[in-house]
Structure formats: structure tokens, C-alpha cells
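Weekly structure sync, notes
Attendees: PL (lead), two postdocs, one rotation student
Agenda item 3: pending single-chain targets
PL asked that the sequence for the first pending target be pasted directly into the notes so everyone works from the same version. It is reproduced below exactly as submitted, 463 residues in total.
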Amino acid sequence: MAQLWGGRFTKATDQLVYDFNASIGFDQRFFAEDIAGSKAHVKMLAKQGILTEKERDDILAGLEGIQRDVEEGTLEITKEYEDIHSFVEANLIDRIGDAGKKLHTGRSRNDQVALDMRLYTRSQVQHTQKLLHHLLETILHIMEENTTTIMPGFTHLQKAQPITLAHHMGAYFEMFRRDEQRLGDIYKRMNYCPLGSGALAGTTYPLDREYTAELLDFFGPTQNSMDGVSDRDYLIEYLSALSTIMMHLSRFSEEVIIWNSNEYQFIEIDDAYSTGSSIMPQKKNPDIAELVRGKTGRVYGALMSLLTTMKGIPLAYNKDMQEDKELSFDAMDTANGCIQLFDGMLETMSFNKDRMEASAKHGFTNATDAADYLVNHGVPFRDAHGIIGRVVLYCIEKNIAIDDMSLEELKQMSPVFEEDIYDAISMDTCVNKRLTIGAPGKEAMEKVIESYKEYVQNCQNVF
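Predicted structure, written out during the meeting:
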């Protein structure tokens, strides 16, 4: 058992205790971050005269050799080491001798693991942003191609008013744009370096924390050493952002599932993103959308787990905080994988445009416009509402759309109706006369799409 702290102890750790306490099984994930942090720390120590230039060079060469061997597969990270920090330091000492024992000068595992987790989370935040940005590009492309693709808009899963596919997709563009911007906010708050905080009270060595932060691309050092080693707010914020992203993906997935059903047939999911049934040969299932919807709870669970872990921890570092890793890693993998898969499914999906428009037409989505027609011809709104209600009831009984009624039938409902009613309640009119920004009218949508294109082109990196 390779440990860094045995001097004060007179007997070996019980194996069960060692296994329970060890983190090498999961913290090896940020091996590269641990090496990067150690390199920066050593360079700073030499700059401050705490290490000689030769010691610096020997340690750096040793660290680079360890990293190369692990990446090439000639050195294995095994469970004989308590954690990734022990693995790196023990192998360094084996390779370069006593100089390796100076690596940890002015540093604690507390600020070391705080740095590693922050570096790893920062890279994951950047990765999520890139995936989201590509998803936004996919959504924008669908919008550009479908400003005249009419479909029903829904409330309560009831057909409500006609909109366009571009308008519907624009709602998700807004959601995922907020998600992307939220990641930028998290990055700006988290990008400060905890290394140099020591165990909790800093160190007596003359460290240059600003230099270390600069080497690791941080904005600067953290300003309180106790908070530096015990802060996981940035991780909670990131898990919260991932949970919100998953919620948006889950809502979108639910619609994909509904649209894919035999009753709707709005979309055709590409074969590469579908599965079949082992017994029913006609089936083509929306498994990706269903799994994204299902995995949302998994990401929520990681957030709630970390919030619950952190709620009772006094300052500064406590071993409870080791529980910040496994579920967080799983949530990061899950959310990023779901974004990528959903993006691929959406990018290859085809839309049954005629079916969408027919659904809007036969769902009485132009009923509000028919009522507005009466109001514009002097009928009080409440009376107009009642007249159109009777029109809809009549159409349901006849199994026809409002557009299919003859002028004579309409006049039986109200003498106000004239030939121009048909133009007033056509799907194109119902959609395109809505010209306020944010509405589905083609002119309004084209203005919004231009602003989205500018956003996508200018915000490749929100950091």
C-alpha cells in the first residue's frame, strides 16, 4: 500500500479501511490534471528559489516520463496506490530519487485535489459548451430550412394555434443558448487557482500563487485558503447546469417520441438512431430519445447527492468531499453523451411536412383567427368566441375542418361571415400575420434567425 502519510503511525492500515478510504479507482481520471498541476508547482518553486534549476528539470523530466508511459500503456495505474497523487509521487521518486521527494514542498493533498478537480471540471465545462454549440448549429439549420413549414402549436398537448417548425425549433434554440451562456458564467466564477492554499492555512514558503495561476491559465489565485480547499460550488453549479440541459433535452425527447408515434407521424428518425423489436417486425423505436429522457434522472441524482454531501461539512477539508467525484464523473459522461447523441439524431431526422400542415388544419388551430375575424367585423369578442365554439362542434360532428365549411354553412352560424373568411383562416395567413418579434410569421422569424446566425458565428467560445 503506497501512502504518503505513514510516519505518525505505528501499525498498518486495515485492508478494509484502506480500500474504503482509497480513491485511486476513480481519481485516476484526472491523472493528466495532476501532472499539469505538479509541473506548474515545480516551476514556481524553482522561480522562488525553493528548488534548484537542476531539481526542477529532473522533476519535470520525471513527470513527463511518467505521463508518456501511462499514455503509451507501458505504466499502469494500479490499486496499490491510495490515490492518483500517491501514484505520481511514488513513481517519480522511484525514477529520479531524492529530488522527487521535494515535489510536494509547500503543497497539501487538500489543495492538490482541489486543483485537480477544478482543472478537470473546467475542461468538462468547455467540452459541454462545444457540444451545445454544435447542437445550436443543428437547430439553426433546421430553422433556416423550415420558416414556411406549418405545424400545430400545442398547449396541454391539445392543438392550439398554427406555427412553423422554425418557430418550434426556435424555442429550443433559446433554451440551449441559455444553457451555453450559463456555462460561460460558471467558467468565469470557477477559473481561480486553489493551489497554494495548503491544507487550509497556506504555507510559510514564499510561494508565487499568481505565477502558478498564470501557468495553469487561471484568472488568478483563490483569495481564501480555507475556501480554496473546501469549495465545490463550481461543481454544484456545473451539475445544476447539466441538470437543466438534461431537462431541456428530455422535453425535446418527449416531443420526438410523440412526433414519431403512428398517430402523429411528424418525423422519420434515421435508421442509424433507431432500433427494432425482437418480436414485432414493424417496429421502429425512438430509443435514443427515450434513453435521454430516462438518463435525466441520473444527472439529477448526482446534483442532489453532492448538495446533500456538502450541506453538513464544517470548514475546511473533510473526507466526505471525496464523494464529489464518482457521481459527478458519471453525470458529466452521461450529459455530454446525451447531447452528442441527441444532436446526431436531430441532424439526421426528416420531417413529414405535409402531415404536419394537415394536422394543424384539422386540429382547429385557426379557430382563434376565425374569432378574430368576427371581432374585426364588429362582433363582441365573447359572442365571437361562442359562435366559433359552435362552428368547431359542427365540424367535429361532420368530421371536417373549418376551412371545409361552405359559406352558406358559416352564415348559418353568423351572417357576418363573407367570402374573405377563407383567406383570413388559411394556415399561411394565420401564421404570417403574426409579425411581432418572437412570433411565427415568416418575416419575424427571418429577423430572429439572422440574430441567431450572428450569435452562432460570434460565440464559438463563451469563455
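Discussion points:
- The chain has 19 helices and four strands.
- The beta strands are 150-155, 158-164, 267-268, 350-351.
Action: rotation student to compare against the earlier draft before next sync.
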